[in-house]
Hints:
Helix content is 51%, strand content 9%.
Amino acid sequence: xxxxxxxxxxxxxxxxxxxxxxxxxxxxxxxxxxxxxxxxxxxxxxxxxxxxxxxxxxxxxxxxxxxxxxxxxxxxxxxxxxxxxxxxxxxxxxxxxxxxxxxxxxxxxxxxxxxxxxxxxxxxxxxxxxxxxxxxxxxxxxxxxxxxxxxxxxxxxxxxxxxxxxxxxxxxxxxxxxxxxxxxxxxxxxxxxxxxxxxxxxxxxxxxxxxxxxxxxxxxxxxxxxxxxxxxxxxxxxxxxxxxxxxxxxxxxxxxxxxxxxxxxxxxxxxxxxxxxxxxxxxxxx
Length: 286
């Protein structure tokens, strides 16, 4: 990805270095659960916030230490600032075309654990968007996991992560995510999971729209970039992750979509560059 000459967003809150010792000492079962959850993008943090609080106990607020970011972390942060700026430019254009103004989110960089309007979260949740404060949260160590654990290397795979989370912000601004969350009290868990899948797949599609338009704006794409994004999307499908973790899949528990679905909807958004093609809530299967 051609990123070094790009504009850097200033809408970044850097909380790195505020480490919480013993943050992952919750026992083997707790770590296994958190590791499984960390494989998902865009997860609702409330799913494991209580678990994180219980693991940390009363020492969460008092036991902190600082650690300076490494050179690689600094480069990753610089990269994220450029990607965030590109999302700002793209979505400002899209919203303007629709006759409205885009409200820029803040992206929070943190180390180990973080407090958000959605509650307390460990880094193991992976990157997430909190609609309560309209902020995206990322621990840069996730990119090591993306490359080494999920076998999804490449800078555009990292850009896809950011674009997917910003997709959730777009859904928030459009009122889509609020409508989905309102359904939670009236649907069974099985039925709500199906709606959640559609929400996540739409965020993948919106990430594809961003890639299309960002390239037209600034010529960001290099050979192989889209393949990196598609590979990342394929690596984080519910079916693939469950097969790896348990040796079998339970479709009724899917919340983010299969690998094939995630690849398909990113492709849909990228091919069209049009937000109107991202109607994952239409009739029929996604």
